[in-house]
Amino acid sequence: MAHHNQTTLLITQQVPLVITLNCIEDITLEQECLSGIAVIEHVPLSRLAEARIESATAVLLHSLAFLPRAAQRRLRSWQLILCLGSSDRAVDSALASDLGLSRLVHVDVNRAEEVADTVMALILGLLRRTHLLSRHTLSASGWLGSVQPLCRGMRRCRGLVLGIVGRSASARSLATRSLAFNMSVLYFDVEGNGKMSRHSIRFPPAARRMDTLNDLLAASDLISLHCALTNETVQIINADCLQHIKPGAFLVNTGSCQLLDDCAVKQLLIEGSIAGCALDGAEGPQWMEAWV
């Protein structure tokens, strides 16, 4: 028995340690797939002090920018750092350089389906006003109050036009879902300036390419952003192009908050020029909550 325990301990020590740092709370699937290959541990922010971060061969996290500075400094240059949900690659890359982390990898392709699911959930929430209904049921009046006023303005998906800004795997997945809801789909390729490159992501045949961003904004009932943050896309949705947006349109952004001119978007909301927006992330005093 003692010999068996020593053998087990030796094998455990030889197997690499992989830490999911404040991400992937349920690691059952990862443990099954990597059984005998690596040991997987989930570390929430509340357990940073006792976590074996320095001993890990690989560290999975949403974004370096989301970690406390103390946790960032415990990462080592030889570790493989996998960012699963970074919307600001430039920020994470700068942080990695500052911390001396040379093995930073952004993993976005496998998240395409999840991003598309999130966007569809946000779109349905805006159209069916489920966030307002949920807030009402949790209020003091609950189900006793009338929900009829909250239902005014609900819209059907069928027949609406979705405009997608960017050409990515998540954009293609969203287009497929939207067509299944009987929406029309338009898209604008930011990098291609309206032209299709040979190696770019292929949209479903029913989706129609627009030559300019302004044309897409003018024709779309819903706009969703799916472009990476670059020097060319910082505040790609700004006061100038928002002059062309279709009155009563909805805006959805699950990418970097820097793709939007927050002040310009909020001004349109206040004026009632757009019907609403849903943000998966926000910065600054302009936004006090994710739903506006």
TrEMBL record:
It holds the Pfam family 2-Hacid_dh_C. PANTHER family: C-TERMINAL BINDING PROTEIN AN (PTHR43254:SF3), C-TERMINAL BINDING PROTEIN AN-RELATED (PTHR43254). This is D-isomer specific 2-hydroxyacid dehydrogenase NAD-binding domain-containing protein. Residues 120-283 form the D-isomer specific 2-hydroxyacid dehydrogenase NAD-binding domain. It comes from Solanum commersonii (Commerson's wild potato). One of its GO terms (molecular function) is NAD binding. GO terms for biological process: microtubule cytoskeleton organization. Coiled coil: none annotated.
